[in-house]
Amino acid sequence: MTGSATLPSADPQPRTRYDAVLLVSFGGPEGQDDVLPFLRNVTRGRGIPDERLEEVAHHYRHFGGVSPINDQNRALQAALTAELDRRGLGLPVLWGNRNWDPYLTDALREAHAAGHRRLLAVVTSAYSSYSSCRQYREDLAAALEATGLADELEVDKVRQYFDHPGFVSPFVSGTREALRRVLDELGPDATPADVHVLFATHSIPTSTALASGPPGADLGPDGAYGAQHRAVAEVVMASLGSGDDGFESPWSLVFQSRSGDPRTPWLEPDINDAITELAGQGTKGVVIVPLGFVSDHMEVLWDLDEEATETAREAGLAVARVPTPGVDPAFVAGLVDLVSERHTSDGDAAVPRPALTSLGPWYDVCRAGCCANPRGERPAVAGLG
What is the C-alpha R_g of the chain? Predict the structure, then answer.
């Protein structure tokens, strides 16, 4: 489907001078007392009772009520600062979350107090969908309104980076290493064909998936969200097949972490169902690649490292999980490449816009109606509408 996709023009925006980089993320609780208030923030406006939230809360409580995502963002903030300084860009890196401290409103007030007026946002989500792009843009607009800074601050956003080499290359090396581990566990008679590579990402409602990406684009039944993931998985597997090891394993895209009304269709297959089916077909091992995730947050630690791994072990399969990019130097450098695409100092040369699939490089500014809000239109920054 990626080869036949028709996309509106993605002309890059003129480079300009920014005052600071704004790292924008989801946020997470940092203690048992934070868990329910955090989940209320995540589900605000949806009327979900605390009893239902407790069904999710036990994932966090299993880890002491602490999500790793905030510490990971602190590490990413420090790594980005160091790389920006190393390249002589000198942009400070501020950090704000959608759902927990430090909130976006805090980061915008901090930016304004420091004298910054033009911010370039880097979001910890690589793909196109409502929850992974448009909702962040809406929350930034809401934070500007809530702080009274809508006329004082301008916030742009780097492009979706699903197929940027800096995001993809850690998955290539991590998948290669995980395949070696699984083959070692299976023994000398095992071959790559015995191991199935499962590219895992967050499930979303099928209607939301179809609406992902710009209206009118021919991207298949899962919209930009599905097309982007499949295109990146193809790049990873092609890289493995062309390497010295010549890993040529079967693979598929699977989904995890679905929630909400069970009557609503969501993207499938679920990773646990897929693992069970593979075991019945004679597969001997699986490699789980958290392709939809930037860092090892709760849905990686619980849904993959606990539940999916347990499913595989109970089915008698060897299993290994690939690391997320986190603060891999290639990923950090790639994010700074994205900043360099938009930020300019006087007299500096133009920079390339690399992309490893036919879908990219993606848009600097989201198209009108892109990744529409399923609950109705809301103002958003960094877009044409």
Answer: 21
The percentage of the chain sitting over the pLDDT mark of 90, rounded to a whole number, equals: 85
Q: Amino acid identity, residue 23?
A: L
Given the DSSP bridges, would you call strands 318-321 and 195-202 parallel, antiparallel or unpaired?
unpaired
Is the CATH code 3.30.2350.10 the one for domain 2-161+328-342? no
- Written as one letter, the residue type at 241 is G
Q: Give 305's contacts (C-beta < 8 A, 6+ positions apart).
A: 321
Q: 319-333, pLDDT tens digit by residue?
A: 999 999 999 999 999
What is the H or E stretch that residue 165 is in?
Answer: helix 165-186
Stated pTM of the model? 0.95
State both tokens at 376: 């109705």
CA distance 134 to 117: 22
The partner residues of 119 in beta bridges, in order of sequence, read: 20, 155
- In this prediction, residue 292 carries a pLDDT of 98
- In this structure, is the dihedral angle defined by the CA atoms of residues 279, 315, 190 and 236, taken in order, positive or negative? positive
> Residue 253: which of 223, 285, 291 has the closest Cα?
291
Tokens standing for residue 308: 């999916």
Task: Provide the token pair at 375.
Answer: 């609950």
Question: Please, which contacts does 243-246 make with residues 24 or more away whose CB atoms are closer than 8 Å?
Answer: 243/176, 245/176, 245/179, 245/180, 246/192
Q: Which pair of structure tokens corresponds to residue 193?
A: 């064909």
Q: Do domains 2-161+328-342 and 165-321 have the same CATH topology?
A: yes
- What amino acid is encoded at 362 in this protein? W
Half-sphere exposure of 200 (CA within 13 A, CB side): 33
Tokens 């900043």 correspond to what residue? 339
CATH 3.40.50.1400 is right for the domain spanning 165-321: yes
**pLDDT value at residue 6:** 63
296-347 per-position pLDDT tens digit: 989 999 999 999 999 999 999 999 999 999 999 999 999 999 999 999 976 6
The domain ranges of the chain are 2-161+328-342, 165-321
Give dist(CA 229, CA 250) in Å, integer.
16
> 120-170: per-residue pLDDT in tens?
999 999 999 999 999 999 999 999 999 999 999 999 999 999 999 999 999
